[in-house]
Input
Amino acid sequence: MIPAAFDYVRPADIGEALTILKKREGDAKLLSGGISLLSLLKLRLAQPSLLVDLRDVAGLGGIDVGGDSARIGARATHRQIFEHEALAAALPIMRDAAGGIGDPQIRNWGTIGGSIAHADPSADWPAVLIAVGASLTMRSADRERVVPARSFFVDTFTTDIEPTEILTEILIPVARVRAGGAYKKLERRAGDFSTVGAAVQLRQLGVQIFVADLVGISVSQEVGALITAIVLAGRTGAAFAAQLGSMQVNEEIDALTTAGIPPVQFLVLPRMLALIVMTPLLTIYTDLFGMVGGGLVAVTVLDLSLTTYVTRLLQVVTMTDFVMGLGRASVFGVLIALAGCLRGMQCGRSASAVGLAATSAVVTSIVLTIIADGLLSIIFSVLRL
Output
């Protein structure tokens, strides 16, 4: 059949093309490779009054693979996608799909953008792009927007693209952990439209989501309290020993005893109470930053979405986990205060003895903390907490 009459323009750049689409909104059709559109024109299933040929528009082609994403220009042909080695290495499913599209003439002329904008239910690309989590960039004279492939395909031969927009590129995330995919289709004969097609993209093991379990439970139950205790042992424990050691050198502790003031009640007990209160509070602070750090690693290294990480964290971390961690922190606080005060009270009568007391307090605090942590772990295990 002969197509209905239409006007034809060949813009030099994307700006001119977008201006034409805005002026002739609803009357114009874009011509990319032409494989899908020309068939519709010949059958008069499509009768645009204007055909806009994009072959001279720069910036709509090319394939770039780097970092954690792959960019495919909307005018990249099926053959270019099939032959691109970096894309095939990062996303083998793309080569699977491109290599089975039509015959050589169709693969040489047909473009990925034209195929997905046409949205034929028998086409190969829609299922593949949804499987790999692709996003599609569309540009009009007024704005640019990015739409997930799952939302782009609305119905048979119907997409989310507006009459004044041009599909410019396809963005596909590339997993940095081991991943792979495949595309298979059933066709009556080679090169024919598929009767049914299936695409799948998987990551090996798929245990990234359990990073939230590992980080949330370990940090809240033990790691947060242990890190806080070690830091306090190095700073507060040493400070207690140095302060009481200096008082010992200056005979201030002897003066307190002579005045009838018990040194333990006046010097040791307040410091112990302070650490009993502050160590759990600092542990909460440590827990928060530990979970934030785990989320940062999960999102940037393991390709886990922030929403998934937070949702999983809220599911697995319970109040019991936090109570166990804060209980450890209180015990650690008591031990650090006792070790620091004990070494300070045992300090000799010289300046060098003060330094030795501070060092000894740090070592004693850390050793006691580690022993207590092990004992508490055994107790919690026996109690099945």
